[in-house]
């Protein structure tokens, strides 16, 4: 089990950040290794990503769903994917708080991995997941402006 949490500052209004976090084009640019992200229906996305963890590299396919949404305050994102190294399931609760016209995003996430990915060890998996989350939220603020 991987557990992550963090708080991130975005220099954009909360409503714009929330809207961007629901936009497939913005999300595709924010997710490292994401080749395709298609909204299949409101709040449901199919994804294709190129990921690598140690010697395990490949193309992964998956689905992400937004649930328990309370615009523009919070939502939960569940993800499920599989590829040559096994499969991944995860959930992230994002809470957006106004910060004088900007936004603080608090993220609490958990995930499970199985297959060859799990065999590389929990420390490496935890570090890779933390790196992906950090890169996602370090995206320039202009990605989070209303599109």
In short:
The protein is built from four helices and seven strands. The chain is an alpha+beta fold and 147 residues long.
Helix content estimate: 10-25%
Number of strands: 7
Mean pLDDT: 89
Binned strand content:
over 45%
Reported CATH architecture: 2-Layer Sandwich
Order of helices and strands: EHHEEEEEEHH
CATH class: Alpha Beta
Which structural class do you get from the secondary structure elements?
Answer: alpha+beta
Number of helices: 4
Strand order of the main beta sheet, please?
A: 1-7-6-5-4-3-2
Taking the alpha carbons of the first and last residues, their distance comes to 35 Å
Q: What oligomerization state is this entry in? A: single chain
Task: Give the overall shape, derived from the CA principal axes.
Answer: globular
How many structural domains can be distinguished in the coordinates? 1
In the CATH hierarchy, the third-tier topology is known as Alpha-D-Glucose-1,6-Bisphosphate, Chain A, domain 4
Largest sheet: 7 strands, antiparallel
CATH H level: which superfamily? START domain
């Amino acid at each position: 089990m991987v557990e992550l949490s963090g708080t991130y500052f975005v220099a954009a209004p909360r409503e714009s950040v929330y809207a961007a976090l629901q936009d497939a084009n913005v999300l595709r640019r924010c997710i490292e290794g994401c080749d395709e992200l298609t909204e299949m229906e409101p709040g449901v996305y199919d994804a294709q990503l190129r990921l690598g963890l140690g010697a395990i590299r490949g193309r992964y396919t998956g689905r992400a769903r937004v649930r328990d949404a309370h615009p523009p305050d919070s939502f939960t994102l569940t993800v499920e994917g599989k590829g040559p190294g096994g499969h991944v399931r995860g959930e992230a609760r994002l809470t957006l708080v106004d910060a004088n016209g900007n936004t603080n995003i608090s993220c609490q996430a958990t995930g499970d991995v199985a297959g060859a990915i799990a065999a590389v060890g929990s420390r490496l998996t935890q570090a890779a997941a933390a790196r992906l989350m950090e890169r996602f939220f370090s995206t320039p603020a202009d990605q989070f402006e209303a599109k």
